[in-house]
Amino acid sequence: MDKAGGSLSAGGSYPQKNAEILSSQYGINLFLAGLLLTFAWAVHAVGISKSHLLSYLITLMLVQLLWMLWYLFRSCTQRRLIQDKDTHAGARWLKCGITLFAVITLILDSFKIGYYIDFSNCLSPTEGIFPVTHAAHTILQVYFLWCHAKDIIQSFKTLERFGVIHSVFTNLLLWTNGVLTESKHQLNEHKERLITLGFGNITIVLDDHAPQCNCTTTTLCSIFSQGIYYLYPFNIEYHILASTMLYVLWKNIGRKVEHHQQHKTPFKFHGITVGMIFGLIVLTSTIAIVVVYLIQIGRSKIKSELALTMFYLHAIFVLVLMCTAGVIALLIYRLEDRSLDNSKNPARKLDAELLVGTAAGSWLLSWGSILAIICAQAHPKYTWYNLPYSILVIIEKYIQNLFIIESIHREQEKVNDDVKTLRIVTVSRGSTLTLTPSYKEIYNGHTSRDAGELPCLFRGSICTRERDGSSGDSEGKSQGDGSGMHSASEFSLCSRSSVADNKRRILKNIAAFLFLCNLSLWIPPAFGCRPEYDNGLEEIVFGFEPWIIVVNLAMPFSIFYRMHSAASLFEVNCKT
């Protein structure tokens, strides 16, 4: 029977593997076609307009909407169809995060609808249909991810693979479209800033896709056009988060999971006050720096140089703090002897791969800046701050990746075996030795009053109160040696537990501090504070257009890295 079962499982996995390969190739071709269409529109290819790109994206979203509706209908009619759940996928805090980004994305869609109404005389109908379709797509997709992100699909697996991978690459194309649109807007403001810094020899024709007609209401048009670009960073994060959650769902199709109890790890503010305070200080100062930077940059040469110098000094200080915190956390891990969890986990594997993969974007920019500083013939004073900044960016992400990846792979701390087997030996007046209940009962406070001892829990350490009450001198002498042995054992146990608690508290504070620091470092590039654009030195060494292409390709990954690191550090804080 075992052999037969084994042969059937082996034979059954072969077509499923083929389905996985076929669906992945379908998704890649879907993405490449859309990517080429996006590129053709960006470079004004003959015969390709924005309406063609939007029509393609609308079609992809409608197909995904149909698949999600079918999946939801099938799940409602056959509630017992999907039984297994991946407890590591679709964490509640991740769902809350994607919901927040989705709400802001809906505001962005409403701004686009208003923008289309004001310029309806000269805009294609697809520019009005797209935000409406996108809004419906966003609402249904968020509901789908809330209800089914943890599903492990075991029926209609071939069909579901194509449906899920279609959804993954649809979101990636929407992310690409958002990145391109936002980058074009940043590029149009970039040249004006360079001119104020004295780089007048850099010339490029600005790319502008503004409508060729007048707005019906000038005030509203200005609000919509400016507001759209401030909301794009949230739209970009929404789509990349949705694609990663859907990818985990795709990897879980047909997966066999072990049924074991998953411990919930809620987030608690208790014990992380120090990390939160320092992190909030960094967050507040970063917001202030970004506001001043955006106000001063491009006003004059002196103000622009001061804005760049201010940004670099603040970033260097923050990165030094983050490197120090990461090194301390890694040293604590080296002092601990805890095994790693190497079980199959698609969500955890994807997290680690995304950390390293997206970090390569900022590493590319940093090495470009370092090379430009070395090779440039003239060095304005503010450009020298770029050297330690770029070096620290490389080191900080290297250290932080080590800390996060090791943290998510470490097994959750279990109670020490010595504590588990601990029994409190008490002597009742006129009775023989008796054993009190087990550690679990003591921990939960269910101790027997007849034992004469009142155990207490203090910061995770098990201690025992000395029993009040008189006892004979002879009894005290006879039990003296035994009491001394138990006291020494309990003292050693409490000391070890106290040290472990202190380490855990330090790690939680470090994770909380790094979490807020990553949120802080996400804000500047997401809202237009990008010294890689405004420095000007790299454009002289590499050329304007080549460097802008490098920045536009690498910057989205650098921005995503910070948000993904923040999400991973939030999980580390809950798990520690």
Automatic annotation (TrEMBL):
Entry's transmembrane regions: 26-47, 53-73, 93-117, 129-146, 229-250, 271-295, 311-333, 354-379, 506-528, 540-561
Alphabetized UniProt keyword annotations: Cell membrane, Hydrogen ion transport, Ion channel, Ion transport, Membrane, Transmembrane, Transmembrane helix, Transport
Comp. bias (Basic and acidic residues): 465-478
GO molecular function per UniProt: proton channel activity
Predominant location: membrane
Subcellular location: Cell membrane
Spans annotated as Disordered: 465-485
One GO BP: inner ear morphogenesis
Entry GO CC: plasma membrane
UniProt membrane topology term: Multi-pass membrane protein
Family stated for the protein in its record: Belongs to the otopetrin family.
PANTHER family on file: PROTON CHANNEL OTOP, PROTON CHANNEL OTOP1
UniProt protein name: OTOP1 protein
Species per Swiss-Prot/TrEMBL record: Odontophorus gujanensis (marbled wood quail)
Lineage: Eukaryota, Metazoa, Chordata, Craniata, Vertebrata
